[in-house]
């Protein structure tokens, strides 16, 4: 059985009080409502991580993640946050390679490979994002695009390290657009991704790798998406900012 995961990517949203209210609500609701075999992760802006971590306390099924980290462990890199710093706050997960980081901050597959190493070396777990843009989908090249992102960004890992990774397929044309991939489109790509993992690491590793879908996922479509055999959960943007919507998604298996 693969781990079921619903991760919220808050992106650059919420002020201090808003973040604290949302995190408290999610922790309380997840305790009462989220099935015990589903992991709920809140990936917050750096400034909120410590507080959200303390609000989670010893909750059994809620975890905290960052949205990025730097490649180097310390030094003169003004404005950056390192993996050892995140680990020292007890952060569980780190999103890497989100399309917004690739697009607006020029993150390359090569840089992401280094960030992945940094996260794993500090005993945290990467949520590695990838996906094609609209022109690539229209040109029918989405599979090749995804294969390149995986092979350059994360397939350098040993099988043991790869076994700790969460993959998140996020077609860029579906992010924040309200235009979700159909469940058939998601399943087709997730199956291809699992086959790519199997070709690299073997079927056993592929069968154990959680592959999340991201892009306009919401309570009204999560059930159909999560019902697909190769969709193991979601990386949720907008809908993770409303506790009720986020928790409903965590119940959509
Ligand atoms: O980018 C996303 C999650 O990382 C998806 O965002 P939306 O759910 O807002 O489309």
UniProtKB/TrEMBL annotation:
The keyword Secreted does not apply. Its EC number is 5.3.1.1. GO terms for biological process: gluconeogenesis; glyceraldehyde-3-phosphate biosynthetic process; glycerol catabolic process; glycolytic process. It comes from Flammeovirga pectinis. This is Triosephosphate isomerase. Substrate binds at residues 9-11, 176, 216, 237-238. The active site is at residues 98, 170. Belongs to the triosephosphate isomerase family. It is found in: Cytoplasm. InterPro entries: Aldolase_TIM, TIM_sf, TrioseP_Isoase_bac/euk, Triosephosphate_isomerase, Triosephosphate_isomerase_AS. Pfam families: TIM. Pathway: Carbohydrate biosynthesis; gluconeogenesis; Carbohydrate degradation; glycolysis; D-glyceraldehyde 3-phosphate from glycerone phosphate: step 1/1. CDD domains: TIM. Its main location: cytoplasm. The keyword Cytoplasm applies. It comes from the Bacteria. One of its GO terms (cellular component) is cytosol. It catalyses: D-glyceraldehyde 3-phosphate = dihydroxyacetone phosphate. NCBIfam families: tim. Involved in the gluconeogenesis. Catalyzes stereospecifically the conversion of dihydroxyacetone phosphate (DHAP) to D-glyceraldehyde-3-phosphate (G3P). The lineage of its organism: Bacteria, Pseudomonadati, Bacteroidota, Cytophagia, Cytophagales.
């Amino acid at each position: 059985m693969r781990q079921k995961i619903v991760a919220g990517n808050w992106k650059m949203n919420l002020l201090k009080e808003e973040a604290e209210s949302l995190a408290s609500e999610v922790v309380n609701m997840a305790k009462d409502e989220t099935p015990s075999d589903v992991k709920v992760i809140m990936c917050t802006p750096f400034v909120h991580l410590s507080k959200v971590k303390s609000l989670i306390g010893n909750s059994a099924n809620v975890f905290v993640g960052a949205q990025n980290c730097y490649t180097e462990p310390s030094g003169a890199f003004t404005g950056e946050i390192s993996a050892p710093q995140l680990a020292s706050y007890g952060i569980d997960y780190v999103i890497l390679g989100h399309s917004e980081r690739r697009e607006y901050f020029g993150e390359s597959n090569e840089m992401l490979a280094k960030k992945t190493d940094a996260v794993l070396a500090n005993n945290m777990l990467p949520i590695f994002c990838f996906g094609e843009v609209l022109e690539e989908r229209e040109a029918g090249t989405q599979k090749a695009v995804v294969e390149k992102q995986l092979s350059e960004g994360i397939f350098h890992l040993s099988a043991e390290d790869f076994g700790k990774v969460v993959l998140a397929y996020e077609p860029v044309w579906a992010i924040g657009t309200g235009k979700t991939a159909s469940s058939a489109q998601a399943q087709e790509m997730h199956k291809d991704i699992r086959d790519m993992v199997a070709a690299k690491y073997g079927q056993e590793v592929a069968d154990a790798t959680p592959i999340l879908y991201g892009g306009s996922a919401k309570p009204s479509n999560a059930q159909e998406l999560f019902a697909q055999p190769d969709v193991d959960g979601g990386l949720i943007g907008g809908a993770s900012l409303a506790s009720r919507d986020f928790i409903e998604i965590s119940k959509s298996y």
